[in-house]
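Usage example:
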Amino acid sequence: MIHGLGFGGLYLLAFSGVLVDLYRCTASSNSSPSSPAHARFLKAYLIVMVVLAWLAVLTGAYVVYPWYRAAAPHGTVDLSLYPQRLLMASPTTIGWHSLGMEWKEHVAWLAPISITMVAAVFIRYGSDLRNHLQLRRAVLGFAWVAFLAAGLAGFLGAMIDKQAPVKGGATIQLTQGGER
Amino acid sequence: MNMVGDALQNTPSLPNGSGAAAILAAGTGAFALAVLAVAADKWTQLKPALSFYKPTGPLSGVTTMAIVAWLVTWALLEWRWRTRTVAMARVNAFAFVLLLLSILLTFPPIADLL
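Running the assembly step on the lines above writes:
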């Protein structure tokens, strides 16, 4: 909930605004420059997005993912507490793990790396970016990648959770023999 | 007067080196992540070494090492390029190739072909 709808959802919602604003602020060397107050607002907005992106991947990797990959003890029949095992137990759902989760767990990290770069470059250059055509292109390109990577990870996460919800609990089973 | 104003407005006040460093480092970090993910998947003996946090498994080491590679690359490039103007078209092309390769390498059907 906090990982997906909280951090991830807010991050994706924030994108619709930032893509338009980034484009408007840096689009052309002939367009009118944005006010200092507006540039300051966009910098703060980008910093919030960077924080949301990192919180989303870190909670995903260190809070939700351990529950997802928990090992079921020998002889467990009800796999509902072990989402990865549940998905892998059926040929109709194994793809959600072998393709969906395996792609999501890595591609999601491209979002915070890319949006951090976008924010850093915008903070350094501000509206001077309109005078750097190539920098502007790269910033907008990486911003799109940050959006698409997060969107893809969010979509796959939602679909996987639909097939095999992560329920959590007091302990995480690390191996088939022991628990932590 | 307007022409002079326009000319001043269109002249970059900062060299592009700092931005180029951030862009190339981001591409490098993404590529490092993909290479480490493939390596952890292919070489089983690497998995325990990359399991920095056991509940998360090798993903913890893959992402931590990729972030370290990204930040170190960024710091080095920033140090070298901060005051310089670099060939930005080449830097962009290289960064986007690395980014594209990282997306392809993290896609399991492609990683499985390696």
